[in-house]
Protein 1
Amino acid sequence: MTLPIKTPIALTALFAATAAFAQPVEVAASEPTDEGLAAVSLLAGESVRAIAMLQSELEQYPNDPALLINLGIAYAQAGNEAEARTAFRAAIAVRDSLDLETADGTTTESRLLARRAIAMLNRGEFRSGQRRSGQFTLND
């Protein structure tokens, strides 16, 4: 089931290991802000800051798949693959999913995006030596 969403939002998440991205197609007023999604920190490679911001936002929005995916990305950037995997799996387990828009303009369901993130993690694509531009990411 996809959540109905009401207003557009700029940035949601980023897979720093690559270059595509996703954002919620629309967001209700009670959803996290762009800043709360830590996209700028993720883009800057500030994973520790992003983790702190996302954990704080998750206290207010505990079942937000975009926050959970971004947290997974931040953990993966920091080299903590176990915590990244836990966050991505939590995004998959959320009862309601969000439609997220990728960098190429396609809309992808949040569970599918989280599964892709796990696959990237399994292939080592978040490791600094494995990063390649032009690949799938969340919210550049």
Protein 2
Amino acid sequence: MKKTFICTALIAAGALSLFSINNGISYKTPEFALKNYYSALTLGYDKSMSEKTIKAAVIDSYFRELVANGKLIRWNKSSFPLKVYIQDTEDVPAYYREVVMSAFQTWQRASEGLVRFEIVENAEGSDIKCYFKNPSDSKAPIGTQAFTVNGNTFSDSVITFKKKDEKNHSLDSKQLYSSALQEIGYSLGLVAKSPSIYDVMYPVGTKFNTEITPRDLKTLALLYSVVPDITNTPITAEEKAQLFTSTEILSTLNVPVDDSTNVDEVVANDIETHLALAEQYRKRAEYDKAAEEYQAVAQMKTDRRSKSEVYYEVAVMYLDAEEFDKAKSCAEIACATDMNDKTEILSALIDYYMKRSNSAVEQLDTILQQNPYNRYAYKLLCQIYRDKHQENLLNATIRKYGRTAGEIEN
């Protein structure tokens, strides 16, 4: 189950569901035909935007970690769509290629076309090359990525996926999908490690980071709004004039809040700083202090839906901490503030965390019967069936609700 961080900038994160690959969708065409799936206004930041907007994006992203990681590397935006080669080999299951292709499609859709791809059948001349090979070390990660760099330019990105897991079994589609999302992120230039377990670019795969988050998207958009240190083709003077420098982006942080900050000394006067403090307290397992900051955010929100999303986030935080009574209290507030598709599943989510899966399944079944478009209920129900290795029930759920709740249509 994926819990999404609170979004403070305008991001429409339409993402292809993991489960759509089992939903009868064909990926046989060599190109993605997604022109109608993203808006004409591409996700991004530019110099026409206010300092406050940029500051909010920086705080609710891991752009600072990206800058601290070293030289910024990314594609020249004029290079999109990038040509992607995915090895078609008979010694791995057929779904491997479809899963990787679906991960590329997810990045394209979620970024609203900021990044775009074209699947090609030949490795020669492609920008991103994906291969399936078994490394000598069986404990190596599922996927690895590397740029071919020469000085301040690079020619391509090579992604290599394992053929088998440590037990010499074929990779689970969910494992491969999560790895593919991350390796594609690296290929796009997101070479920093997010500190949040919910983000795709968190360094260790978890059951949470199988969906591109607003934090992932904001970091990507910020990266593609600055002049890179390393790129595939030179950035022209005219293009540079429209871009920020990383220093200009970071200078918007009048009150920097990061891992080294003494957060107890920070005085927050705006939503962005309260969110940054909440994140830091959460990372430090000071959950009650984090809840206080989230509470301040909720009080500053003006509409019921936004307020309920804050309380939902606090409930999830306490669930992760296994403080179930506090989670229940926050869930009740979230539902009372605004009952929507997200808050409606909180009771089932609590049961799931408390290992009362039968009760959770009953509630989710009821929700989906009443509203077959509730993607949160659908994803949680599929997650429970996957956890219990109940493939028949999982496939039945996908067949029944995959076309209504399994995809997010823009």
